[in-house]
């Protein structure tokens, strides 16, 4: 048997006939942090709910027909969870020692507990039949024999779910972390004296020192401060909701005598987590659904940072926050697809997570070489939405910046993760043809230009004479000064001089839409527009305006025109048409 840490960890979950999953198995390795990401409604919260249900420190859980996959109550809900290194108190022969299994971290399979390549593990099974009554068991995977797994034994695994019902975590009622702490520390709450004090007066309770809890409360205060919440003066006091300790009459208040349950949602969730870390240290398995909920981006990022930096047991979390994933290592992140496939990310995508974390929350990716391309594609998509066509967001299409020369590596990484992918890039780099061929050989569709053009070159080369003037006027609109408007000029003097540097014979009258722009003049405009020291549309917002203008122009271009072909195809794919 392999010797590991004493910290219990969930390594595998099997779900059958539960909510959106008909039959699915998820492996989490031996990771301390498991951050589930993916598109909304992919099943991330269901995974956390399944973990909590099967290991819940609760005497009973309520289920309904809607919990069955497609309401199919003729088949039971079955949830199985493999926990390695369970607490020693569960391993004795008169407990579950004879039902112990081994878990091979290399193969991800359960085996006989005597296997030298395996770690101590128990397999917990929850079954819910059509009568909606939950049954918990520990199952020996070799003999298939099982034994009931009661509430008290499940409580020893210290599983805590931080979701929308954290208020009870701040009281000492039955089943709460604080109540379990009081039992485990051999410190019993004097129920009769508390009830008596409640009946006499709240002031008397407020003056009670609760010295037996001082060290525990100080630990919570310290943990909360590390996570950015100040609760100095923390002490139990009467909650107006109830009078009995077991019903929540005794709960934590801050120094202003306000119950912690009255704090904001985000603060309550952080405080709930602070309680778990203070009371259970690294022996807790914490489940946090949407870790950023109720928190500003900086506080969400700080919470993720602290979870990463401290050994606070195993933490499962879901998120849709770029701020959160940027604080984690790629190896902490598990990507859940709509089809229910869970992919464990590797360090190779760390740079992409730092550069464009929004890819983690999309179904389909358009990878652009730079900011101009991102803006233009967004503008094309926005024009489609305004015209009543399917918006990119409805199809789950995310447009991301590939960071210039890094886009080839990023494209390979995204493709390897199974994302439907399109790449949009310039053709003005020396090795562009080689890179495009490399991507296309792997089955990746690339949109680029002819004749080593950049986007600006291709635009000016392929639009009508009138459209050339409109693009110059758009650039001027995005950059002109108010003083020029007063003189009723078509464009500002700065723009006239800038274009004149590229085309010496240029005159503002050319912008009336009638001028016949030559190939050489168009080439000069493209060069001017992409100049490094003053690129006309080298910002996403400016690129969006250009994209929306191009969307107006495209229908007027010949069908074989490369601009029309590329952008029509990009829009259709982005809308999943």
Mean pLDDT: 86
Count, helices: 21
Beta content: 15-25%
Number of domains: 3
Q: Give start-end ranges of low-pLDDT stretches.
A: 481-487
Distance separating the two termini: 55 Å
What structural category arises from helix and sheet content? alpha/beta
- Biggest sheet features: 8 strands, antiparallel
| Morphology | elongated
Fraction of residues in H or I helices: 25-40%
Number of DSSP strands?
A: 20
CA gyration radius, whole angstroms? 31 Å
Short summary of the structure?
With 577 residues, the protein is of the alpha/beta class. It is built from 21 helices and 20 strands.
Describe the structure.
By secondary structure, this protein is of the alpha/beta class. It folds into three domains: 9-158, P-loop containing nucleotide triphosphate hydrolases (Rossmann fold, 3-Layer(aba) Sandwich), CATH 3.40.50; 161-324, 3-Layer(aba) Sandwich (Rossmann fold); 362-577, no CATH class. It is built from 21 helices and 20 strands. Strands 1, 2, 4, 5, 6, 7, 8 and 9 form an eight-stranded antiparallel β-sheet that branches. Helix 11 packs across helix 21, helix 15 packs antiparallel against helix 19 (519-529) and helix 16 (465-479) packs antiparallel against helix 20. Mean pLDDT is 86; it is low at 481-487.
């Amino acid at each position: 048997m392999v010797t590991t840490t004493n910290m219990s960890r969930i390594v595998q979950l099997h779900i059958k006939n539960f909510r959106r999953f008909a039959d699915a198995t998820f492996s989490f390795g031996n990771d301390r942090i498991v951050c589930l990401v993916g598109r909304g409604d992919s099943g991330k919260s269901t995974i956390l709910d399944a973990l909590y249900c099967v290991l819940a420190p609760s005497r009973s859980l309520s289920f309904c027909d809607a919990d069955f996959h497609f309401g199919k109550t003729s088949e039971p809900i079955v949830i199985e969870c493999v926990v390695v290194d369970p607490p020693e108190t569960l391993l004795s022969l008169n407990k579950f020692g004879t039902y112990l299994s081994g878990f091979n971290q290399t193969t991800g399979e359960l085996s006989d507990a005597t296997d030298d390549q395996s770690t101590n593990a128990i397999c917990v099974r929850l079954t819910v039949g059509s009568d909606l009554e939950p049954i918990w068991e520990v199952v020996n995977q070799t003999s298939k024999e099982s034994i009931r797994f009661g509430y008290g034994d499940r409580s020893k695994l210290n599983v805590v779910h931080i979701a929308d019902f954290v208020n009870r975590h701040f009281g000492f009622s039955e089943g709460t972390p604080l109540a379990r702490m009081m039992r485990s520390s051999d410190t019993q709450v004097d129920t009769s004296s508390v009830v008596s004090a409640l009946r006499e007066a709240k002031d008397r309770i407020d003056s009670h020192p609760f010295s037996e809890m001082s060290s525990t409360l100080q630990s919570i205060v310290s943990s909360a401060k590390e996570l950015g919440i100040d609760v100095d003066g923390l002490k139990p006091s009467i909650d107006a909701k109830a009078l009995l300790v077991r019903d929540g009459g005794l709960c934590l208040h801050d120094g202003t005598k306000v119950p912690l349950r009255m704090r904001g949602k985000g603060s309550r969730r952080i405080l709930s987590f602070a309680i778990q870390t203070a009371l259970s240290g690294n022996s807790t398995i914490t489940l946090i659904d949407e870790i950023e909920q109720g928190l500003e981006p900086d506080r969400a990022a700080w919470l993720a940072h602290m979870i990463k930096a401290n050994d606070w047991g195993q933490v499962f979390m879901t998120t849709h926050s770029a701020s959160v994933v940027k604080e984690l290592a790629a190896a902490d992140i598990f990507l859940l697809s709509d089809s229910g496939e869970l992919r464990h990310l590797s360090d190779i995508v760390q740079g992409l997570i730092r550069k464009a974390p929004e890819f983690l929350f999309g179904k389909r990716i358009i990878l652009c070489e730079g900011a101009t391309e991102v803006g233009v594609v967004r503008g094309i998509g926005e024009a489609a939405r305004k015209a009543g066509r399917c918006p990119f967001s409805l199809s789950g299409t995310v447009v991301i910046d590939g960071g210039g020369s890094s886009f080839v590596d990023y494209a390979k990484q995204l493709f390897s993760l199974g994302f439907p992918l399109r790449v949009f890039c310039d053709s003005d780099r020396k090795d562009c043809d080689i890179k495009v061929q490399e991507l296309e050989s792997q089955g990746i569709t690339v949109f680029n230009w002819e004749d080593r053009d950049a986007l600006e070159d291709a635009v000016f080369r392929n639009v009508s004479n009138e459209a050339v003037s409109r693009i110059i006027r758009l650039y001027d609109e995005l950059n002109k000064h108010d003083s020029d408007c007063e003189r009723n000029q078509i464009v500002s003097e700065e723009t006239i001089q800038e274009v004149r540097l590229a085309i010496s014979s240029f005159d503002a009258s050319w912008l009336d839409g009638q001028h016949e722009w030559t190939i050489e003049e168009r080439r000069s405009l493209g060069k001017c527009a992409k100049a490094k020291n003053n690129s006309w549309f080298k910002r996403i917002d400016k690129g969006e305006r250009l994209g929306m203008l191009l969307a107006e122009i495209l229908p007027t271009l010949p069908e074989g025109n490369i601009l029309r072909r590329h952008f029509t195809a990009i829009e259709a794919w982005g809308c999943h048409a």
